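Minutes, project check-in
Item: structure for the 555-residue chain
Input as provided by the requester:
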Amino acid sequence: MVRSFAILLMILALFISIPVEAQTTEEDKQNQETRRFNKLIDDFIDRIQREIMWQIGYEENDKDLPDTSKMHITFDAREGAIHFTGDVVIDQRDRIDGNVVVRNGSITVRGQIEGNVLVLNGNVIIQDGGKVIGDATAVNGEVLLIGGEITGRIEEKQDVDVDIVYKQRKPVQRVPYRISNAFQNDLAVRDIEFSPFWLGFNRVEGFSINSGSRKSLYWDGSIALSLYGQLGYAFKAHRWRGQLGATRQFAAGNDGLIEIGGEVYSLTDTKDEWVIGRSENDLAAFFFHRDYRDYYDREGFSIYTGHYLNSPRFSTHIRVQYLNEIHSSMRNRTDWALFVRDRSFRLNPMIDEGRLNALRVAFNLSTIKPSPRRLDGWSALAAMEYSSPSLNSDLDYKQYILDVRRYQPISTYDNFNVRLRAGSSEGDLPVQRIYELGGLGTLPAYPHKAFFGNRMLLLNAEYIVRGDILSQLAFIPRGLFGGLTLLFFFDTGWTGIAEQTDGVFEGFGDFSFNKLNTSVGFGFGSRDGNTRLGFAWRTDRASSAVVFLRVDRPF
């Protein structure tokens, strides 16, 4: 606010120097204009502070401040604003739904932004084909229209000390913004993503009350030791469950981070995290008597080391982990649900019990660009888990998983998304690691987990069309279908059982295209495509449609 106070003093000095006669004759008008101008300045500076301070906070000590020149995209959890640092280009095929804030750089818009644009120390450049459906404000810069369009107000403010709000702040804390959340609880990466508090429900625990804290990554090295964990109580199982972890972090250049960590835990675990998320499954079990996961008890500890790279173009994460744990079977403890009382839960299957000592290596690469409405980019996961009596383990196997995804925007109105997932193994793959296909999240037209084996191939593809394309038709009111999407999907997969002595690339001899299990369908979804009502048909024989409702995207 120092700059605003200086401006106010200059204005006051100017009015004091005006002759008394002129002041008297214009007094009412001048006072009104002064108050209006002062209010504009104060409101504008306050708005800048609100846009920035939610992210950086306050701290009395301003020593050893982090370098913010390498900050990448983050999301404003309160207002949905997308923040950039440095020059940024919104390409012709890009569409951003939400407010945009750019610091120390200019924004060039060739696509479309549905929201306000605020640039601090830079220019707003709207080129041919570019459109901002909202206000555009440039602080210490200009708003330039080069064949583009801005539907709202245009403001330019000069000589504003934007950096004043950065002189006192807490260390910048960021997570890898391009690492897909879908992999966080897959075979490879078990980083906690829990909310501070949540209620759970499933058929082996009944109701549970839980609290958790996710692991944070401090890229600037400001905090070396990061603690995380969860604690919960399962009422039907009459057991406390929990996890406590700690990681020592080392900054590796501007974009890298090395960690060494460990965990102790007693958990109700599942191998079906990649099929359906915890919250969605809890809701299905509670309301509709459908529990799509299978569970087992996992107790023990692990130690790991990993490396994160978070460059402007892509992010990577590699982890090497040692596990020492006991696996035990769990049984159904409740058959209650709020609705569909005449249905019963599936029996939770028995597993191969015993001690699991294993080594796990995983690599994730992602170029996904975050967007409130759609995804764009590649994401790939490769993982291997090795357990052997030589590690004092009761289980003897090697498991391999490859998961590759492509999210491809075609135009402003449509996307094509595809996932290829493959699994193989060597040795005696235990039940809690077996591959299963069928039903929600895999082959929606087939019964749940209808196919299983130690070999797996799965292809999921979807074409998404945004409903606001219909606004081009004159007889349909503009915006009537803007909050909906139309989805077409194709899913096909195969599982096989190979000999235990077969290598990782062997045992696929039984595969042929006529043995693929395929389903096709269509559906209606929310604007981001996450919540969807779908209708799926199997292609091997005549069948009625399988209707399903999802509140999370399948991949």
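Outcome recorded: The chain is about 10% helix and 40% strand.
No further action items on this chain.
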